Amino acid sequence: MSSQRLGVLAIYLSKSKLEELSYFQRLSKEGKKLGVQVEVFSPTDVEADNSVRTLTYDAAHGRWIRRRTSMPPVIYDRCRYKAIANYQMLKAFRNRHAKLTFLSRPLANKWSMHKILSENESIRSYLPVTVRFSSVQELLKFLKKHKLVYVKPKSGTGGRGILRIEQLDHDLYLLQGRNQQRTIITPYRASEKQLLVKLHSLKLSPDYVVQQGIQLKLRDGRVHDYRLLIQKNGQGEWEVTGCAGRIGPQRSITSNLHGGGSAVSQDKLLAYRFASSEKTETIKQEMNSFAYMLADFLETKFGKLCELGMDIAVDPRGEVWLLEVNPKPSREVFRRIGENATYQKAVTRPIEYAVWMLKQQSRKLETQASEDLDLMD
Known about the structure:
With 377 residues, this protein is of the alpha+beta class. 36% of the residues lie in helices and 28% in strands. It folds into 3 domains: 4-102, Rossmann fold, CATH 3.40.50; 110-126 and 219-355, D-amino Acid Aminotransferase, Chain A, domain 1 (2-Layer Sandwich), CATH 3.30.470.20; 130-212. The chain has 10 helices and 17 strands.
């Protein structure tokens, strides 16, 4: 058995199927190389005496093995909430096991996050104007001011339930979007009066935010953005692992891979949009420096974090915008574009950071024991 253990907190999609199991398999293989046993479990696998039924991957036989064991000392939380019941279950787990070492902390919903990020003057300039939905009439005023807006559920993920509304002419508007199942809604062209009727029928609530739209359409009409991954390395320091472009399918308003988007290298997508290599290099440098600034700021607000996925837009002028930040990012985009070394690094870094955390923990205990002995003398 490996000398060190890393618990991975996950959610069941069904009674027996865990989310992200293929990622956990890869994590287990990389963990073994570093002397770390990866143990996957859900809060529902914890028993009354705090023993836990974990899954460990047996690479020799290509299968997962369930074992009853003690709680792993370090926890890598990969739970995506999706439902309020999951959020409450995970919050209860964290409260009950507050003494465990967690690699990261949950962040806030879109609206709370916007308010927190707006506190920082340097970060504020990268944020699209965002307001909480109050009424259809206020939404229309906001749309007339910005000409393009996105309406998003404040706690949604993966492009679910997002609307894009654009003013095309004096009395002509285009409504596009995805429903809660990520299915593309048929584009709807409407006059102001028709749009008002349609928006009323959608029963929007203060659980939605309204955001200034950034022009993200390519020449073929498809939207695009960039996914930047920044992670803690084996020295406990932030490092940009990589950045890749994402292009949505036809008629889609989002570029998420889960919603049918395709991946392309950052260099290729930037070069497609900007002729000057000097310009693209400047944009890349700005993305990276912003990522470090954002990661450092979020730790001052939420505590220690392990990794962040940042959805970044670059408008036609080359201005950089933050669309969203995710504390439990996927790394699939790098595998899709054939950047296997980046993908490998993206998988390995949480384990390296966990090993570093365990070492810090061990040193702290040794120092405490030494101080206790000194007091006894």
